[in-house]
Design a protein that fits this description.
The chain is mainly beta. Helices cover 10% and strands 55% of the residues. It is built from four helices and 21 strands. The longest helix has 28 residues, at 23-50. The radius of gyration is 25 Å and the shape is globular.
Length: 513
Amino acid sequence: MCLSGVREQVKDRNLQIEHRPSAKSLWIQAVVRAASWQFVLLWAIAIWLILPSESILGQTDAQGVPGQSAGGQGPNSSRVSQDTQSSGVAESRPASASGPHTYGEAEKAGLNYAGTAPPRNALFLGFNAGSSYDDNIFGNNQHRIGDVDFLFGPNLSLHRDGRLLSLALNYQPYFRIYRRASEPNAVDQSLGLDAAYQATSRISFRARGSAYYTTGIFQPGQNQEFLTSLGSPSGLNSTVYTPTLRQLTWSSRIDATYQARAHDSVGLFVGDSRFDYEQQVSSLGNLQNMEERQAGMLYEHRVSRHTTLGTNYLFEDIRFGLNSRTLVHSVFLSYAQQVSPSLTVSVFGGPQYSHLHEVIIFPIGPFRFQAPIFQVGWNWALGGALTKRLHKTVLQLTAQRQVSNGGGFIGAVVGSSVGASVRHQLPGRWDAIWSGGYAKNTSLASGSAASEFRSETAGFGLQRSLTERLNFHIGYDFLRQRATGQSPLFASFDRNLWSAQLSYQFHPIALGR
């Protein structure tokens, strides 16, 4: 065979190799096709369920499957979402410590119906699969990209009550794969823990924590039947939203409580919260890692079985990047009242003293100039919550104003927010939830370093029990954020999310006492 013929054969062979799809690309294409069919299937089920028809399974109340909530996934599910939970651990405290919770305990009221108790001494395993359409997956209004994603993964929930130790745990790993965009594809994880230990008849300890390793702000919520997410004053600022980046979010708090008398208790607590963007912030302007450390003391007095008074001292050390640190000293007075078996009201207020030390960098041509800022000031914190809990309806209203962290965009802020949530059981095994909120966060730094963030959120979800263990959920979530001042351009964006999800819960495994 001539040399030219051999060369032609080698050339043809090389062309075949170059055009041959790799195993990885074939796998990705197969997953994308599966995601597309999954999305079509879930929305077909949604349309079929919404059409008027008689239920084959009979007319029973929709209690939901542990591990899922009617709210689905939305801006408030991952951080702040971290939020419609009720804790079995909290309910297992000694009788002397029962009653409405004051502000300093950082206990969030859930959206569970009246008369529903959290499962105890059991291990739950489940599996979730769903699809959603996000019209702005990167949170960039200048270059909006919409895409369909496919989400699937297991969930594990555990609740164990012992004579001295109570433990609640929830873990959810899930895979998120987009149909066209590959950058946000990831394996996300969420973990929640709540443990209480009764050392003696008067001394008790409690440890709470949550961790989210995620990409993006729309995430599945934690198990509402098992865990309570940390709220103010120990939770992260959940009203400032960052772009779609890989991030580790962590919040924790440890309490030690001494029951001095039947109606009086004194507690000490320490906490730590942080946003970690894994060194992705160098090319994104002012977006920086954030850490907030807390310590404080809480005194509570039970005026009656349904009334609690409290006073709380709180110290916060807020660090933003390498050049910003804010120390905050706060004293709060709080009052909680169970007005009726279905209505609970709580309020708090007090002064906050802040000391800000920040370095502002001004780039001018090839030069970078640094200007230190020292600022002290006083602010007043004020807030309250109202919860109406019936057997088929739950209403929750919240409002607050206080110094907090800036959620990765800026250091410390004065945040004001209002929110409302309603959950209602509908005929035909349906469960519905509505939520909405508005927030304004203004930086403590004044002058040229000042920034302001305004956000509006709204959501609606429907859930139906198809069988005793299979649930179906559809939802819509809206987020709008606007930033002014020294805030980066990508801090202003709008996002709409339509989602559908199937959840299956296996038979619970009894753990015994």
